[in-house]
Amino acid sequence: MEENLEEVKILEINEGELESFVKLSLDNIETGLTLIDTQVNTYRGTLDILAVDSEGCLVVIELKVKKNDDMLFQAVDYCDWVQENIDSVSRMYRNIHPKVEVNYKKPPRIMLIAPSFSSSLKRRAKYLDISIDLYIYRLIEIGGKRGLLFEQVKIPPQRFPPSSPKTIPDLMSYPQNVEYRTLVGKLEKAIRGVGGDIEPYPTTQYIGYKIKGSYIASIHPRKTACPYVDILGEEGWESLSLESKNDIEKILNLINTAYRLKKGVADANEV
Length: 271
Fold this sequence. Notes:
Blueprint: E1 8-11, H1 15-29, E2 34-42, E3 45-52, E4 58-63, H2 70-84, H3 86-92, E5 109-114, H4 119-125, E6 132-142, E7 145-153, H5 168-172, H6 178-192, E8 198-202, E9 207-211, E10 214-220, E11 228-233, E12 236-241, H7 245-270
Parallel strand pairs: 4-5, 5-6
Antiparallel strand pairs: 1-6, 2-3, 3-4, 6-7, 8-9, 9-10, 10-11, 11-12
Helix pairs in contact: 6-7
């Protein structure tokens, strides 16, 4: 017996239609989200949708039918306007929505709804001291019936304070592959033996080596992939994989050359 599977279509939508759908879908986007007004005139532009959440916090909702980085800054302007006029706004809508209680002690939130968001917008949003929620939507049609699907997009967390540099033992033990871990350890020890004035130093991602302030090489351990080494040669930086003991010998030859070149330059400068 054949099953009748309805074709799912993803449709285009204009901003007026998007606003109409969103107004009817607020509780599906966030439980307890209640419509206050649409197309609110502010001296900074027209706010698409003003809502209030279950805790009485006003929510500025900005809509776009195309990816648009400016929507973040528009919403910030509207949010600032709402914050500056929060007493007036709460009084204005009290008679219209007597059951809606606005908590004027809570700062307004921002909600952005668009088909997609750029990496730039998400990076900027994480640094703003405002509650911001991002939702992407899809307008679908099944069997002649249309509806909006919403999916929340996570804003990456701030990396502050910055990660502390790892120790050299931490970096040497980073590879999960035992063979790779062994090769990194052997190479690290061999590089130190090239010259007593080689200075190893750890970073968050690699072990670097320098002589009298000049960089000559770095080992890059990786969690599952093959480690690699960057070496400064006569024609610039060269990257080599560290897959076997044979690679250690080849890498050491190049590091010896880099060491001699840098040491010669450094010694000449000190004369």
